[in-house]
Design brief:
Blueprint (H helix, E strand, L loop, with lengths): L2 E6 L7 E7 L2 E8 L2 E6 L13 E5 L2 E5 L6 E3 L15 E2 L1 E4 L2 E5 L17 H4 L11 E6 L12 H17 L2 E6 L24 H5 L5 H11 L2 E7 L7 H9 L1 H10 L8 E7 L5 H15 L8 E4 L8 H10 L1 H21 L30
Parallel strand pairs: 11-12, 11-13, 13-14, 14-15
Antiparallel strand pairs: 1-10, 2-3, 3-4, 4-8, 5-6, 6-7, 9-10
The structure holds FE2/S2 (inorganic) cluster.
The site of FE2/S2 (inorganic) cluster (FES) has 9 residues, from loops.
Amino acid sequence: MKFIQVCSTEELPNNSQKVVNIGKRKIALFHYNKKISAIANACLHKAGPLGLGEVSAKYDGMYVTCPWHGWEYNIETGSAPPGFPDQQALYEIKIQDGFILVSEEPIVKVHREHHNDPLLEDLIKLKYQTLENSLNILGISTTNLARNLPRYSTSEDALEKSLAYASEKYGAATKMVKLRDLEFRNCEGYYSQHSHACTWPCSITEMNPEDGMTEVYESMILWADIVIVSTPIRWGNASALYFKMAERLNCVQNQITLNNRILVKNKIASFIITGGQDNIQQVAGQMMCFFTDLGFIFPPFSFLGWSRGWTAEDMDKNTLLFKKSEYIKRTSMEIVDNCVEVLKQIKDVNSHLIHAPKPRRNDSLSAEIENKDMNI
Ligand code: FES
């Protein structure tokens, strides 16, 4: 077997690690407990750089933890922790005249087990449930209410009115998702490490398909023709739960950046924004900006707003007036009419002809600069 010199022993003192190249392949070298070992640098999950992972004693030996999402490998054997059949490629090491040499080919071959959870199959394969003549309307309520003593919510009430009208007038299939009822984790910013570390479905969902965002991904991306999102105005912005969901939708937008793959096809979005005080237009602007970046289409007049101005501190009267408002009754129906009308017009649009004029990885000014530790 041919061996390639990769660095001097001084460059890899005890308790250290580094990434080296053999031709185009990247190898993670480890020197712990006075033993030098080498495994392929690209994690079997999404090619995270194992050479940058933390090494510690666990299970039956010394393990490196992938810095992207935490998969683990024994640094001396390349195997996954006990009970997992995955095997990282393992290389042989020789020390000669103060230099470290690595075998050109692995002495133990790589093996990656199929890990996809059946709960996520539809999302992975993008099994869309919309049809030529479907009219699936999803309401997403982003207000937070106490579970045991829910207060009256203006935004959710308007959304319920819209859904009831859609079902009654158009025979639409409707679904309400209340974010407060879903247990879901905050986005953990995997994208910040590398664009490929943010996956579809979201890395958190991959790790835990029971995470509540699975429901949002399935309903919003696969099932809905029309999505109506309702939010209260909180300190001049949409609700915290809205932003918690929006951050977890980064994985949808990121498919455009990474793969020029638009997941949202021929779908309409509109918004219901209610608050005691003002800022409807800023909230609408923020939501529209985000939803257009996901690929949604807006009908004309795509938000309904309610507020009573800067001095409206008598909130008891706010709910009183809202409940009686003819304006709310009318507009909660009108936004549905507009969504349905525009949906009819876009059903036939060939979604393959729609482009995403957004920056991709290669558009970066530093795209040509190699990061020697990364595999992609
Ligand atoms: S755990 Fe390594 S890339 Fe995801």
